Amino acid sequence: MDYRYLGNSGLKVSAITYGNWLTHASQVENDVAVQCVRAALDAGISTFDTADVYANTAAEVVLGEALKGERREGLEILTKVYWPTGPKGKNDTGLSRKHIMESINGSLRRLQTDYVDVYQAHRYDTETPLVETMQAFADIVRQGKALYIGVSEWTAEQIREGVKLSRELGFQLVSNQPQYSMLWRVIEDEVVPTSEELGVSQIVFSPVAQGVLTGKYVPGEPVPEGSRATDEKGGADFVKRFLREDVLRRVQGLAPVAAEAGLSMAQLAVAWVLQNPNVASAIIGASRPEQVEENVRAAGVSLAPELMALVDEVLGDVVERDPELTQLNAPQARVV
Questions:
Q1: Could you tell me the end-to-end alpha-carbon distance of the chain, in angstroms, rounded to an integer?
Q2: Hey, where are the domains in the chain?
Q3: What 8-state DSSP symbol labels residue 21?
Q4: 3-328: what fold?
Q5: How far is 207 from 184, CA to CA, in rounded Å?
Q6: What phi, psi does 279 have (nearest 5°)?
Q7: What percent of the chain is modeled with pLDDT above 90?
Q8: Catalytic residues
Q9: What DSSP element (H or E) covers 238?
Q10: Alpha carbon of 142 to those of 11, 75, 148, 169, 259: distances in Å?
Q11: What global pTM score does this model have?
């Protein structure tokens, strides 16, 4: 396993993060979830990402149980706040001081820990003054309930404003968690350069584009049974943007590229995002321990420049690069 510094901080995280979005307490049974976490630990993964909204808080419970008994100092546990949780009342959402302060306490209780290593704003809250949000985060850091602060899917300008306030308030905003893959590169033109300037790393999700970059979705054929595209609990909604015939045909063309690199297509996809120097870690999910064992082999892989260029050539114009999509896909108002 490769370990990298997170932003302009002294904190190291594993290059592969184990995440439990759409899996724990949802797609997989709890005993299998524990097996996946054990496989992650055995592979050298020390960084675990979750959120209070995953399975409406149940995913945090599963992760807390799975990590019970592990040496806390050897782990980096990340969670998030923003989306509605619990009974989803008027204040059970957003980044108000009230919701943040109540949510961190709930997350710590469910995760069975005294602190999280990185507490992340799961989205930008257009209805709460940013200074209120950042003051709440500053207080949580001073209380020792979080060591660092991160954000998720913020625009370059929002990250810049957040970093400015964090420095004034005396804490470190060290990371952004965006979607990033060979097919979805919207952070490259604005978010990455701004983050590099400010000392913020990316912890990227969906490096395999919801499974599309594994090659298992074949153009002209039905989607495989049990795949993310058949998940009615939310997975199908996220993967459908990539299930166009032109995208799937291009993805099939990556098979010989992966073979040339001595990797599976999934390993190639994860290794590809890790070539970006601003990416500290790539989040993988798993419904079977074997998936963890396969994807972790992408850590430490160096892809030759000519192979990276070949990926661009194969995928061509199906790659999404518009930086405006970060803002367009963000909630314009709180979701209740």
A1: 40
A2: 3-328
A3: T
A4: TIM Barrel (3.20.20)
A5: 9
A6: -90, 115
A7: 81
A8: 54
A9: helix 235-239
A10: 17, 20, 10, 10, 50
A11: 0.92
Cα–Cα nearest to 6, from 108, 117, 104: 117
Q: For 96-144, write each residue's pLDDT tens digit.
A: 999 999 999 999 999 999 999 999 999 999 999 999 999 999 999 999 9
One-letter amino acid identity for 100? I
For 27-79, the pLDDT digits (tens) are: 566 788 889 999 999 999 999 999 999 988 999 999 999 999 999 999 999 99
* Integer Cα distance of 31 and 13 in angstroms: 26
- Which tokens is 90 given? 């008027």
Q: Read off the tokens for 242.
A: 């990539």
The single-letter code of the amino acid at 287 is: S
Model confidence over 245-258: pLDDT tens digits?
999 999 999 999 99
Closest CA to 20 of 3, 34, 4: 34
**CB 83, CB 53: distance < 8 Å:** yes
Structure tokens belonging to residue 179: 């979607």
